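EI: anyone free to look at a 505-residue chain?
SC: sure, send it
EI:
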Amino acid sequence: MCAPPAVEAIGLTKSFGALRALEDVSLEVRPGTFHAIVGENGAGKSTLAKCLLGFYRPDAGEVKLDGVAVATPAEARRAGLGMVFQHFTLAPSMTVAENLVLARPDLPALLNWKKERERLRLFLEHAPFSVDLDARVEHLAAGQKQKVEILKQLYLETRVLILDEPTSVLTPSEADEVMMVLTSLVRQGSLSVLLITHKLREVMAFADRVTVLRRGRWVASSEVEHIDIPRIAEWMIGNSPPPEHAERSDIAHHTPALEIQDLLVRGDHGLPAVKRLNLTVHTGEILGIAGVSGNGQRELVQAIGGQRDIEGGSVAAFGVPYRPSREDIRTTGLFTLPEEPLENATVPRMSVAENLALRTFDRAPISQLGFLLDRVAIGHAAKELVRRFSIRTPSVWAPIRNLSGGNVQRSVLARDLGSGEAKIMVVANPCFGLDFAATAFVHNQLIDLRNRGGSVLLVSEDLDELMKVADRILVMSGGEIAHETLRADLDLAVVGRYMGGHAGE
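SC: here you go
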């Protein structure tokens, strides 16, 4: 493999309507280096990456690899530029081998699988990760899927690899393994890495150089050895005050709010994913559920929210049987915020204002005569929520899909918490891919609900998040509750063993 090229972004400017996503941003990634890009949600990091790849054509400026201008995805690909996106792009129903082969741009009309498998075997002999070529992607854990995504880029002879939040879905040990392997490839001189991340610890541990963006503009670039985390944070937020953490009130947790008994839920393949699970969330409590992805957490949240059938057992809210109908949701105040809210908790093509009205569109003043919608009232209500929850949007009538991840999350929380009707929140990985300011905002909202006597069931793959926010933590493994601990008594080594299914070791 040839040495990686130098990558230059020169004066890039990119707008989407009235929203200026990038403004005169310049960046240089030196050959054979590990370069990090950080910034708050909406700072322009992903837009910059897509301009480098040719997916977006900038309004001004240009991209060069080894001094040669590139403007299209095909040109960037030929120059050795590739990207691992925040969300997996693998075909779930296909095998690892099929995903690797089908990614090739020179794929022939007819495949000689014997020849292709031999080529894959030779590739894997020198690959940094070991994978089962015959395993279906849908059966792989998140860590294995991430490794396949990286292997796919190496198989395509990528020499500059852009990574968008690559460790967000990984356990701490998996994240360190992936980052150390990539660092080794960089040190060997066969790869350059451009890392988009919110995890400043990863920047300090693995990057050679860091660039900070704020509100679409370049703020600073520096060798990592010459700075520290407080300085990076200062560059990221500018003159904005640091996010404050809500104080946790002392509340006695006695009254059951959400009770789940003998819950049985099947997964996508008909096998039990949640196996006769029992748990109780009390008023004034945040109950955390820890676990490695794929142990039934997603199915649990979907069952409570009505996205998946419950085959056995029961769910009760304040002692009354609960089903996720619009009437029961409104009566009990039990709101569910599933993973990937842009896809699962919003209508992406609808405006911010329309999405904010989804809880109240059938009530006055938004609804007139029970069926007529008052767009003026929708707009007024949306503007008030945008102000209260500091949602950054060019207009309340802009499509919600145009917002950054943090602002989508703020919008969903504004819709559910803005009216004061929420009494129980079931949330899944609510800070996935969010910067520290947006994360602090989400945590503060959940703690504030708890302090007011509300209840939160927080499902998270981030142990640090659970240690900050939860009062009590359960570990879910193989669709069952494997361990319970108070936050104050949490032992990371013990919890890690239960998460990995090795409690007896």
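EI: The CA atoms of residues 37 and 211 lie 5 Å apart.
SC: 👍
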